[in-house]
Specification:
Distance between the termini: 76 Å
Shape: elongated
Largest sheet: 3 strands, mixed
Helix content: 55-70%
Structural class: mainly alpha
CATH superfamily of one domain: Glutaredoxin
Radius of gyration: 27 Å
Length: 150
């Protein structure tokens, strides 16, 4: 009777040791596996926000916007920015800062818009995203970029 019991215990011990070794191997692989590194971004670029109007303008309006935000979309489609710029011209500087918190797609939309900014087409991309909203999935973002030649 003792022999089958001891054989079962040895099997269980081997299973536990095997699982422990597997877990240890997985942990070591996870820790030491090479991780992709994002390219360094200069502090100047991080501090540089998309803007319209001269930096020397006496008034600055800063919009903390989200391409997935219905209120931001309504504000944009109402033409408020164009009205302000038409009325005050170079007396006003308008600055866009990303605040991507409304939808799950918002962070990717903000990232894509910053890529458009790096290519000199932020405002065109900004306007196109608001025109196509709420279509902000990755395929939509890429389609907008292709449309603008990015």
């Amino acid at each position: 009777m003792r022999e089958p019991y001891q054989r079962k215990k040895r099997g269980q011990r081997r299973l536990i040791i095997g699982l422990g070794l597997f877990a240890l191997f997985a942990l070591v692989a996870f820790v030491f596996w090479p991780q992709p590194k994002a390219g360094a971004v200069s502090p100047e670029r991080l501090a540089d926000d998309p803007s319209l109007g001269p930096a020397s303008a006496p008034a600055t309006i800063i919009e903390y916007g989200d391409f997935g935000c219905p209120s931001c979309r309504v504000w944009h489609k109402a033409g408020n920015l164009e009205q302000i710029r038409a009325q005050y011209g170079d007396q006003v500087r308008f600055v866009w800062r990303d605040f991507p918190v409304i939808t799950p797609e918002s962070p990717k939309a903000a990232e894509a818009a910053q890529c458009a900014y790096d290519q000199g087409k932020f405002w065109e991309y900004h306007d196109l995203l608001f025109a196509r909203a709420p279509a902000l999935n990755v395929a939509d973002l890429k389609a907008c970029a292709v449309e603008l030649g990015l």
